[in-house]
Amino acid sequence: MASVSLLRRARAYVPWSAAPWRDTAFAASGVPLQFGAWAVLVAPWTILEPVRAVPVLTTLLAPVLVVAVLAQPLASAQRERCWAMLGLHVPPPEERPGRFRTEGYWRVLAYHLLAGPVIAFGAMAVIVAWAAGVALAGIGAYAWALPSLTAFRVAAFSVGGVALLMAAPWLAMTVRNMDARAVVALLGPDRARELERRVEDLAEKRAGVVDAADIERRRIERDLHDGAQQRLVALAMNLGLARETLTGVPDDAMRVIVEAHEEAKEALAEMRDLIRGLHPAVLEDRGLDAALSGVAARVPLPVRLRVDVPRRASSTVEAVAYFVVSEALTNVVRHARASKVEIEVTRRGDVLSVSVADDGAGGADPSRGSGLTGLGRRVRSVDGTFRIVSPEGGPTTVTVELPCVL
């Protein structure tokens, strides 16, 4: 396969194919632009220097200022040339290259004063290779005008001309690749900055998605709290009232009322748990301390809670911290066989740290697909770190660090 690919490439770069002439035209078209900056710098010395009335300082500064003014138009012309002749789109850098202190400006100057002239000499070498190849390959046609040439020299020059014609397409391709890469690297956006900008954009979009999801959860919590939960409360109260006040009701009917009342109370309890799991209202109203105190009070274990958060974090981060503690406590109750739990939530600078430790049996492993896996995923969704230490026999410590601002 490699030999076939190489053969196809060689066929594409024979002297009579279209690709070499396209590359040669592209290389030759760049010579005036690539020598433009140096022409501006050198011209005053040849034109103004003989005029004694022109100060030396003016002779030095004028070309530099002209190059500074022409840097952007020359760069734009190079980018347009790449698009018109190669179909290569090179967007301009976001920072204006005309500003002296920007990195983009110095990259433009590096192209005009360093890379461009080198590539221009390469383009001139391509033109010379084509011209010399044609002249030497066809020397037999006008050898009669050069009587000093022997037949051997004519043959040698002809072979050399054919070799130049065969090499010129590859030289043109090399110059074209060098020029295109230099334009992309020096006249386009800085790739490192572009990647950094894209990462920032993705982080902002991710934060927007996370915030939108949190807002949606809060909306659902309010709708359930103000709508479905209130209807369940009213239903449970009515059934309870019927259960206590109705007399003379057949036993079968009373049994149905009692069962319906119990089901309504269970549904109400499940609804409250669901609402609390979506986004507890106390978290939004009073913060982590009050919300976590309510969670700890519902755990059938001794829980020591310490919350030291001088300034509240964003609502999304607070929600993640709340669910970390809530899920960790659920796991302790279900699996750890612990006798006590210690929870510590602190804020140091812009980092909110959450630690949940128990003295249970240990052996918790997120890789087994437990709720800890989803918990770690939720923490990482806000650029947080999730770590669990749970050797066999215990104790187990879940440590989470969250950025306070997304």
Distance between the termini: 51 Å
**Strand count, sense and closure of the main sheet?**
5 strands, mixed
What do the pLDDT scores average to? 77
The number of distinct helices, counting runs of at least 4 residues, comes to: 13
Count of extended strands: 5
Oligomer: single chain
Helix content: 55-70%
Using only CA atoms, what is the Rg?
39 Å
Low-confidence stretches: none
Q: Which helices and strands, and how do they pair?
A:
Elements lengths: L1 H11 L5 H12 L1 H4 L1 H12 L8 H31 L16 H35 L13 H37 L3 H55 L5 H28 L2 H6 L1 H10 L5 E6 L6 H22 L4 E8 L2 E8 L12 H10 L4 E5 L6 E8 L3
Parallel strand pairs: 1-2
Antiparallel strand pairs: 2-3, 3-5, 4-5
Helix pairs in contact: 2-5, 2-7, 4-5, 5-6, 6-7, 8-9, 11-12, 12-13
What can you tell me about this protein's structure?
The chain is of the alpha+beta class. It has 13 helices and 5 strands. It has helices spanning 2-12, 18-29, 31-34, 36-47, 56-86, 103-137, 151-187, 191-245, 251-278, 281-286, 288-297, 315-336, 371-380, and strands at 303-308, 341-348, 351-358, 385-389, 396-403. It has a 5-stranded mixed beta sheet with strand order 1-2-3-5-4, covered by helices on one side. Helix 6 packs antiparallel against helix 7 and helix 8 runs antiparallel to helix 9 (251-278). The longest helix is centred in the middle third of the chain and has 55 residues, at 191-245. The protein is elongated and about 135 Å long. The model has no long low-confidence stretch (mean pLDDT 77).
